[in-house]
C-alpha cells in the first residue's frame, strides 16, 4: 500500500496544485469558483495528514453503511492520518465546496494538537460523514472562507496562530452539529441497538462464546458495516450506555438463566459465557446486579 509522508507528495498524487504552505493546503470554491478535480479513482493509500472536506453528490448512489442518506445537502467528511483511503469513478461530486488538508506536524506545539484527539468524528469511517443543513453549511463555509483568506495572505508570525484558532472554531461547530445529527437519528439508533443485540444473539446461539470467547466491539461493528466509535457513540447518545456496557448487560442477562441450572458451577457458567477468568465474571455480575452470582442463585433457585 502506498503511503505519503508529506502533504506535497499526497497532493501531487491526487494531481492537485502544490500547497502555499508546506504543511497546509486550502481549496475553497464559493460563488463561481470550482474545486480542482482529484484523481478519478485510487487503490488503497494512506498519508500523514488530516483532511476536512465538504462535498455534494450530483450523480450516482452512495450508501453509508446499510443506510441511504439524502445528499441534497452537503456532507462534511473528516479523515485522520493513516486512515486507508480508496475510491472509484462510480460517484460524481459537485466541484463546489472546500477541502482543507494539513500535516499532523502542523499542530505540533499547539493546544489543538491535544484537543483534536477528543473529536470522535476524526476516527469515524466515511459512512459517518456529517450531513449539514443549509444553515449549518453556511456557518462552516464562513469559517473556511476566513481560513482561506489567511492562507492566501503572505505568511507572517501571526498566520499559524490565526489559522489554528479558526480550525479550532470549525471543529467546535462540527462537534455541535454532530450532536444534532445523533439526536435526529433516534429511529436509526433504536434500530442499531436491535441489530447489535441480534448479532450477539446469533453469536451466542452459534456456540462461538465457548469456542472463541466474548466478541470484541470491533467485531460486532464490522458485522454491522459501521465503525466501532460510531456504534458506541450512537448507543451512548440514545441509551446512556456504551456498546461495551450493552455487551456486558447482554452477558449478565444470559448468565441468569444458566445460573439457575443446579448442575453448573459458577466457574462453568463463566466459561460458558466466554469469560477466561471466572473471578472477573463474578466481579462484573456483582457490579451490575448488586449481588454475587452465588447470592443470585441462592435467592432465585427453584426449590
UniProtKB/TrEMBL annotation:
InterPro entries for the chain: Homeodomain-like_sf, HTH_AraC, Tscrpt_reg_AraC-type_HTH
Key words, A-Z: DNA-binding, Transcription, Transcription regulation
Keyword Secreted tagged: no
Pfam family, one: HTH_18
Source superkingdom: Bacteria
Residues annotated as domain HTH araC/xylS-type: 198-299
SMART domains the UniProt entry points to: HTH_ARAC (SM00342)
Protein name listed in UniProt: AraC family transcriptional regulator
